[in-house]
Specification:
This protein has 403 residues and is α/β, with parallel strands linked by helices. The protein has 13 helices and 11 strands.
């Protein structure tokens, strides 16, 4: 009798363990960063892969992968809202809260989506992978999913997204070269748009293609047959740049601190971060300078970031530990969110044999790469073949997370 009891217990434990650690087949959604684009906006040139295609390579390896296309210069709130409806489907609704604050159009008529994964729910969660600002955006999406938003009259938003709590919809969040704590570059440049050099370089690639700034909610759109230069110039002068509802604020150190104060780690989500660095310490000046392998167009950014500090609203400032960077984002900012008013999220280095814990950031390693190359830009086929191994290994890890 005792033997039978223990035998049943062992069988139950084995079955439970097998179910708990069996592979999940949740889809992976790739989310671009500042000035990014969707799969069809730049012809055969991909945000995720450049001349190659990270999404397609992962699909060929047996994974279900989709690429999102959110506002390239919009705030993380607006981008997260767009991301929700692109995945789930439906008419974009930025919320009455945003309308009250910024006077935007709440439901732009041309922003309605079929949904790339309509079955998305707590029973069918997803893995989110964000590059650069995309890493902030997917954290904002989690915040909006688990928070019922109320407007100034204390009424819940009307949408099922913003007006109710939707926990358990995200299994994991992975950030790549993300300015979790902001980037000092946004505070250094005074043009009103951060990363201006990178922006101008993109214009040469974009030309007169289908690239769109996706600012319809601001009442801004490209005119019929309008030249890229005119479209770009009008966008730069738009009043949105004087608000907090735009990329320049969200990627500043103060804007990131504000976001980190509300977008804290979710105890139900697994977190991973990839760090890139492409500068060297100049011991004579204590500054960081770009390595020879860095793309020429962002070397000027790297030099500025390698020697100057950024300032918070309270007068405090960043220090020399922020100087190391990848040409766009400071290395120190990529590990995970640390500057919120409630303190740092839990952050530790990933070790292969560790039992992973949700609610904690795992740093997946530091890569000698500039901001562009780690998503496949300006690299050779041989380099891409090595890069895609990193992506396949990581998505394989995501598939082993418990259901």
């Amino acid at each position: 009798m005792i033997y039978r009891f223990y035998l049943c217990y062992i069988i139950f434990f084995i079955a439970l363990s097998a179910n708990l650690y069996s592979q999940n087949k949740y889809p992976v959604i790739l989310v671009h960063g500042f000035m990014g684009w969707g799969p069809d906006e730049m012809g055969s040139y991909k945000y995720w892969g450049g001349k190659y295609d990270i999404e397609e390579s992962l699909r060929e390896s047996g994974f279900e992968v989709y690429t999102a296309n959110v506002g390239p210069v919009s705030s993380n709130w607006d981008r997260a809202v767009e991301l929700y409806y692109q995945i789930k489907g439906g008419q974009v609704d930025y919320g009455n809260t945003q309308v009250e604050k910024y006077g935007i159009i709440q439901k732009p008529i041309n922003k309605e989506y079929m949904g790339i994964y309509p079955e998305w729910s707590d029973e069918n969660p997803i893995h989110l992978v964000g590059h650069s600002m995309g890493g902030q955006t997917i954290r904002m999406l989690d915040y909006l999913l688990r928070t019922a938003i109320v407007d100034s009259s204390l009424k819940y938003e009307e949408s099922n997204f913003l007006g109710k709590i939707n926990e358990g919809w995200i299994k994991s969040i992975t950030s790549i070269s993300t300015p979790h704590n902001g980037t000092t570059l946004s505070d250094i440049l005074t043009s009103g748009i951060p990363f201006l050099q990178d922006f101008i370089a993109l214009a040469a690639v974009v030309g007169n293609s289908f690239y769109d700034f996706d600012l319809e909610h601001w009442g801004f759109r490209r005119e019929n047959k309008e030249a890229w230069g005119s479209y770009f110039s009008r966008m730069r002068k738009h009043p949105a740049w004087g608000t907090k509802n735009i990329v320049a604020w969200d990627v500043s150190v103060e804007g990131a601190r504000e976001m980190n104060s509300i977008c804290t780690a979710n105890s139900n989500i697994y977190y991973f971060s990839y760090v890139t660095s492409n500068t060297l310490l100049d011991s004579t000046s204590n500054r960081h300078v770009p390595e020879k392998s860095m793309s020429y167009i962002i070397r000027a950014n790297a030099r500025l970031m390698g020697m100057r500090k950024a300032y918070y609203a309270d007068g405090s400032e960043t220090d020399s530990t922020w100087f190391e960077n990848d040409g766009i984002v400071n290395k120190k900012s990529m590990l995970g969110p640390t500057t919120g008013n409630n303190g740092s999220d839990p952050i530790g280095n990933y070790r292969q044999n560790d039992i992973l814990i949700p609610g904690q950031w795992y740093v997946m390693g530091e890569y000698n790469s500039d901001h562009r190359k780690f998503i496949g830009h300006k690299i050779s086929k041989k380099e891409f073949d090595e890069l895609i191994k990193v992506y396949i290994k990581h998505v394989t890890l995501l598939s082993t997370l418990p259901k």
